[in-house]
Amino acid sequence: MTTVTASPGVGNRTTVAGPGLPAGRVNIADRVLQKTAERAAADIVGVDAKNVHVEIVSSRDSAVVRVSTPFPVPRLEDTEAVRAATPVLDAARAAQGELRTRLTRLFGREVSRVDLTITGASAPQRKRVL
């Protein structure tokens, strides 16, 4: 298993070490982990990555990820889409679990918790027919 730990004295860097890895260190900037989490969250939730904000609090063995994002909802005048839509709370819980699983795999260490804060609603853009 690969372990990612904060390196003392290195600033905003993370050291990756584990069995089967060559001797030495691989440093991953915290910003890389943050951008990776932002893109994964945007992909899973279904919004533009520029609207997603992520904070990562890490310890030796795990990480906690805090995500703030708008959440996609159907246009209210599209009654069929509204009826067919998954309730926001259910969709948010599913996204939270999927994000935790994906980030655990991408980071190479346990993500113990994902806190998801929905900051607003994001409706799809109307398409104009010319």
Q: How would you describe the overall organization of this protein?
A:
- The chain is an alpha+beta fold.
- The chain has one domain: Alpha-Beta Plaits (2-Layer Sandwich), CATH 3.30.70.
- The chain has three helices and six strands.
- The strands form two sheets. Strands 1-2-3 form a three-stranded antiparallel sheet. The chain has a three-stranded mixed sheet with strand order 4-5-6, covered by helices on one side.
- The N terminus is likely disordered.
- This is NTP pyrophosphohydrolase.
Structural category = alpha+beta
**What value does the average pLDDT take?**
83
Strand content: 25-35%
Helical segment tally?
A: 3
Unreliable stretches (pLDDT < 50, length at least 5) are 1-11
Write the layout of secondary structure elements.
Layout: E1 3-6, E2 13-17, E3 26-29, H1 30-45, E4 53-58, E5 62-72, H2 79-84, H3 88-107, E6 110-122
Parallel strand pairs: 5-6
Antiparallel strand pairs: 1-2, 2-3, 4-5
Helix pairs in contact: 1-3
Care to give the gist of this entry?
Helix content is 32%, strand content 33%. It is α+β, with helices and mostly antiparallel strands. It has a single domain (30-122), classed as 2-Layer Sandwich (Alpha-Beta Plaits).
Search tags:
three-stranded antiparallel β-sheet, single chain, three-stranded mixed β-sheet, alpha+beta, 3 helices
